[in-house]
């Protein structure tokens, strides 16, 4: 039970230690850089360490263990962290790894034996972004909804924002996870910057 609880906590981002993950994708030629960057942004936003990025370029119908990228990802998942292994897997979808029910069952067993978690981004609920939303700008105040934190934008890198607060290190967050701060939230952050006392309180309508 303890192992299963720890795995579930890690996959949800609530683990006590910083997790190491393998990023995996099975893609068409020419999509490697874009998809790798997207997966890396999601992992970084969760404060995970990227152990390796394993990419297979070719047809999804090829069985998993005939793909060199997946073989390397599976090896890392089965290796303990002290020897350079990984705690979990991040991919766009389970279908990129296992195309049949038998392969999906084998994948579940493989992860279970390795005590590894898996996060498939296409299976997660997404927060819709209004089409008319104004672009985020450097210096603006936003709320990172995954952390319920008000922060200032240090940099805008495509779909990833670099955020900071008066205390602590900056962190990355995807644009889809953020919303503009309300007037009250912005004031609370400004007051904290001026006094340096206490934590600003975010409003949650």
What does this entry look like structurally?
The protein has 205 residues and is an alpha/beta fold. The chain is built from five helices and nine strands. It has helices at 2-12, 32-45, 68-77, 101-113, 183-195; strands at residues 20-27, 49-57, 88-91, 117-120, 141-144, 149-157, 160-164, 171-174, 178-180. The strands form two sheets. It has a five-stranded antiparallel sheet. Strand 6 and strand 7 form a beta hairpin. Mean pLDDT is 78; it is low at 1-16, 126-132 and 195-205.
Keywords:
four-stranded parallel beta sheet, alpha/beta, five-stranded antiparallel beta sheet, elongated, 30% helix, disordered N terminus, 205 residues
Topology overview:
Elements: H1 2-12, E1 20-27, H2 32-45, E2 49-57, H3 68-77, E3 88-91, H4 101-113, E4 117-120, E5 141-144, E6 149-157, E7 160-164, E8 171-174, E9 178-180, H5 183-195
Parallel strand pairs: 1-2, 1-3, 3-4
Antiparallel strand pairs: 5-6, 5-9, 6-7, 7-8
């Amino acid at each position: 039970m303890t192992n299963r609880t720890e795995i579930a906590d890690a996959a949800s981002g609530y683990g006590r230690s910083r997790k190491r993950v393998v990023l995996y994708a099975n893609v068409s030629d020419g999509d490697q850089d874009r998809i790798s960057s997207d997966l890396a942004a999601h992992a970084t936003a969760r404060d995970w360490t990227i152990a390796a990025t394993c990419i297979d370029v070719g047809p999804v119908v090829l069985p998993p263990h005939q793909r060199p990228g997946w073989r390397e990802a599976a090896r890392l998942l089965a290796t303990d962290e002290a020897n350079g292994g990984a705690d979990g897997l991040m991919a766009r979808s389970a279908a990129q790894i296992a195309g049949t029910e038998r392969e999906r069952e084998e994948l579940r067993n493989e992860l279970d034996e390795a005590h590894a978690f898996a996060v498939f981004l296409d299976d997660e609920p997404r927060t819709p972004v209004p089409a008319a939303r104004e672009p985020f700008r450097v210096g603006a105040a936003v709320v990172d909804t995954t952390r319920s934190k008000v922060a200032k934008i240090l940099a805008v890198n495509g779909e990833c924002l670099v955020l900071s607060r008066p205390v602590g290190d900056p962190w990355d967050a995807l644009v889809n996870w953020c919303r503009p701060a309300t007037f009250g939230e912005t004031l609370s952050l400004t007051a904290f910057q001026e006094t340096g006392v206490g934590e600003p309180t975010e409003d949650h309508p």
